[in-house]
Structures are given as structure tokens and as C-alpha cells.
Amino acid sequence: MPMRTNTNSIGTRQTHLTALATLLSALLFSPCFTAAWGRNAHKLVVNQAIDTLPQDLRGFFESYRGILLQHVIDPLDAVAKTPAEKRNDHLYLDKYGRFPFDSLPRNYKSALDKFGKSKLQANGVLPWQIGVYSQKLTEDMKNGHWEEAKLDAAILANYVAEAHDPFSTTENFDGKLTAQTGVNERFGTVLIDRYSSFFPMRPNDASYINDPTDHAFEVCLASHSWLETILLADRNAYVAGKSYSYNDEYYDRFYNQAAAVLIRQLSEASTDVGSYWMTAWINAGRPQLPH
User: Fold this and answer.
1) Among 97, 120, 131, 284, which has the minimal tally of Cβ within 10 Å of its Cβ?
2) Is the pTM of this model over 0.70?
């Protein structure tokens, strides 16, 4: 007698497998699980930023290099635990029309009155977050709260670095809108993990920033302007070998075409992180630093 198949059981099992696959896909590719700069990028920026500081300030940050490197990735961990925190690490400029996106006021209250809190948070508040942490670090230093200063300096460094990541400035943050899913990770994580030992990074000396929030907006605009260059490099690297896979040859080609932009953005991020730290110290009245 032939074995009878329980079609209801098979159907139920297939339904469960489909639901599981859908759930995993949602978890893997949802925005809150998509990183911008990777962890090594943030640590690279902080390491270089310390060297941009003047001698009378460098000693303090040099003494706490390990703490800064440890905590610069705190915002990444915060996003993993609390997805709502993601609003702080990006600004989707293309949600506000065309370059130079003048429809978005740089004053937070004016932007809030014009667009409402939900839209602002959905599209990101990165430049204002940089302004907030710049002021926090200033107050820490002014009041001699050096433990808080170390942590806030690390978090500020994270957000300043994010402003230099072109994919933090666009709704196409993961490449899906141009059928290049994961290009942000290939650019901001994999290239750095593979090739950073060859990076000829040359950040400039730190300089005073007159308006921390406004400067953050300018950085986001400049970063946004590199998007098409990176996307084109990714497309060209993908099709050139005709293997249509992200293998070693693809990454070599992508690096050759995108390295100049990548190194430029990381170098400028290091310069700006040092500049924000120095600006906070100057605005705090140049307090005596602990040794």
C-alpha cells in the first residue's frame, strides 16, 4: 500500500518556513540593522583625529585614546538595542528636494515648525545631534566633568564621522533604490577592513569651528555630492569581471575606483573630529586639562 502523504502537515511546514524566511529577511535588511561607517572606520578616524590636535590639548586625548576607541562605537550599539536611536546618525537630504536642499531650515525650531517632529526624525537629525554633543562637550569641559567629557567626546566623534559618510545623507542609504543593495557596507566597512593598512591618510591640523551645527550641515552636503561617484564605481567594478559577484577581483576594482573618495572622507572626518574637540575646549574657556 502506498504511503499516504499528509498534505496539511506539509502545507503548514511550508507556511512556517516562508514566515521564518520573511522575518529573517526583514531583520537583516531593515534600516535599523544597516550600519553606515563600520566599527573599524570609526576607530581609524579617532586615532587620526588625536594627531590633529595642538600640543596643549593633544596630551589629554592621547592619555584616553583607549577609552575613546572603546566608546566611539557606543552609538552603533545603541541603534542595535534601540532602533529609534537611528534618527541621530543620518540626514536624508534627498527627502528635501534638490541640492543644496534649501527647503530644510538649519535652525532646529524652524525645521520643526515647518516639517513636524515625525518627519524630521524619520529623515534624520544628524547635524543637530552634532550641535547638541558639541555643546555637551563644551559644558563638560567648562565644569570640569572630565569623565563625562571623555564619553561625550567619543560619541561626538562618531556623529561627526557619520556626517562624512555619503550614505548617511541619502534615502538610498543601502543602495536598494539603485539595485546595489549593500553598497554602503562594501564601501564603508569591507573596503576599510581589507585595505586600510594601505591608506595614505593625511588629515589637516584641527581648526576652530564658528558654528558647529551649520558646519555639520555643510559637511553633509559635501558628503552627499560624492554619492554618484561611489555608486558608479560599484556598478563598474561589479560588471567589469563578468562574474557578477562580490569576489576578491570585484573589491580590488572597487577599491581602485573609490579609494580616493574613501580616503578623502576619512581624512576629513579625522580633521573635523579634532576640530570639534578643540572648538569645545576653546568655547569652554581653555580650562586646565587633567593629567
Assistant:
1) 97
2) yes
